[in-house]
Amino acid sequence: xxxxxxxxxxxxxxxxxxxxxxxxHRADRVKRLGDFLNMESFDLxxxxxxxxxxxxQDLRQKLLPTYPAAHYFRSxxxxxxxxxxxxxxxxxxxxxxFTLNGYPYMIHHxxxxxxxxxxxxxxxxxxxxxxxxxxxxxxxxxxxxxxxxAHRVAQAWExxxxxxxxxxxxxxxxxxxxxNLHPKDLGCRLLKxxxxxxDAYLETxxxxxVSGLYISCxxxxxxxxxxxxxxxxxSDHEALMATLCVRHSPPQHTSSHSHGPAERxxxxxxxxxxxTELDQGMAQALWWxxxxxxxxxxxxxLLALLCALAVGGGIRxxxxxxxxxxxxxxxxxxxxxxxxVQEAKGLCRARAELQHVLGRxxxxxxxxxxxxxxxxxxxxxxxxxxxx
Amino acid sequence: xxxxxxxxxxxxxxxxxxxxxxxxHRADRVKRLGDFLNMESFDLxxxxxxxxxxxxQDLRQKLLPTYPAAHYFRSxxxxxxxxxxxxxxxxxxxxxxFTLNGYPYMIHHxxxxxxxxxxxxxxxxxxxxxxxxxxxxxxxxxxxxxxxxAHRVAQAWExxxxxxxxxxxxxxxxxxxxxNLHPKDLGCRLLKxxxxxxDAYLETxxxxxVSGLYISCxxxxxxxxxxxxxxxxxSDHEALMATLCVRHSPPQHTSSHSHGPAERxxxxxxxxxxxTELDQGMAQALWWxxxxxxxxxxxxxLLALLCALAVGGGIRxxxxxxxxxxxxxxxxxxxxxxxxVQEAKGLCRARAELQHVLGRxxxxxxxxxxxxxxxxxxxxxxxxxxxx
Lengths: 388, 388
Prior knowledge:
The structure is a homodimer. Helices cover about 45% and strands about 20% of the residues of chain A.
């Protein structure tokens, strides 16, 4: 790479609100999105909530001349809703489906059926390796009383771990998607502290890049209720458009991810917060498992009683009538019980991973000459870090 | 690293057959396993089928002085059964749960409830990065008529992709576990061709290592029905014990994974075979989804008929009695339908990833001067490679 080398990368991201039969003006919006993407000719267009594979295929046909490479990430029952169109060849791709993603019995929220995931694309641009990630985390239906908080924190952690472990040889890391997180939310901070990624919206000058590269965000635009060329909105979400500029970095600009004392104590603090959140989520999951365990027991008792009544005569018809609902109760409670057992296991797994990172960050803090004794209290989780 | 540097790595692997209440002499075997591991003091002991977390905790207590680091990989409803004990600090760990893992209604086989996964450990040994993976793929219950073949091939592919994407900066890659595959089976070949890993059992001289390192397997032992010190078996599986030797490689010994023409055509051939297997699995999944779709339709018709009969009088009691089993039929068929829809999506996802790698391998073959026209026929999948 020459010293005066500059790479410009134009990126588009949109949550398309593409629910078949439910999202308004879907066909028209997909058509206009295709026209817009063709006209703008971005390097990379990353889309969420493209729930209908037919919509993807239609876009694929339309965008083929401008974006020769494309991929639709399939998962779960409905799908991940994620897809990508690229002007440059996609060298490799894979995906990771999140372990936890809401509750199957919350049918009106539907997230569980989607199989939310993170997709990874590896691109080679001017001799540099770009790892581009696209994701969609669990929706936030009630910010004040968010029953999905533990799941979203677990998803943010899995996302951070997936990026951390798959991007070790990448020169540039780009994460796009709908995180359903505000910039100061726990999940967002966890993601940033553990991966070293920066928010293009907040900090347009420091993106994650290897030492020797310097990525800045030259332009950053969002739509504001309507697409830039037609008056009507493209989606119920706004689109993001950014121009990233990759340059050779003079030494003082090197923005590689390093854990100095300040970063380390920020990491420790956010890990502790996430640990607490996952711990509470786990307690909740185990509480539900216990309750449904009791329901199963009661249902089985009821069934035994009904059997006795049916055999012994008396109110035989009533006993037979009540038999099937009781079986339903036992089976239903059994399914909910199994679900919450695996939920607790999933949260426990994320907590154990977090705890390990927390333990190592604390060791590094204790060993570093700048170690700050003020951060020593509150070690209760760290002391248990070896108990995974 | 000095030129005459040598690192010796002693590894132990065992499928422990640790099913609570069902596996014979479990407590005694776990106790003897702990004694054996303490006495032998391996660098790394990787275990599968440790289904009871209490067994892990007991081993953890016992092995703490010899193996200060340990981790239990939690997932699914029962767990992954995977755990690891290490003499060296574990720098990082994470896991990936396989998308497909059998059928929930095959309760007697139970794999679906386990949440089978691959666990990753990152260790730093003498300045080298070792990525150690432990896994357990779906069991093979009937080799002649294996209904789980497509799932196991999809798991082998996910495993290969996880290793491929997470080991890019590793100096050494070690995979242990119970693959439920013979050395010549499709899943095993797929794994070896895509990751460049070698089988320590078959080829004790060439392990995967970065250029400049040379890994050989100095000793390779398996138990033969009994553990080496006591007469009775440790498990219903045999244990593997290997001593790996990592040395500086003279140039002619460099065994880094490269895709020359021979490797490329082997890769293409195994990818095509796996593609066909996944395609057949997908057809099967869609067939089941269609059948259950019809059952749902019939169940709904029956319910409508029963409603009419109950309202219209006539055989009212019979109608009411049949009502609940019909609802059960519709709900049960609905659940099976949803399961097979997500199964088809999971297989389709693996097929698309495979197809992409296949397309790129063929492009590389076409471009290389040694390209062999004899391999040109049978491009039917390759031509669809861009349709992901």
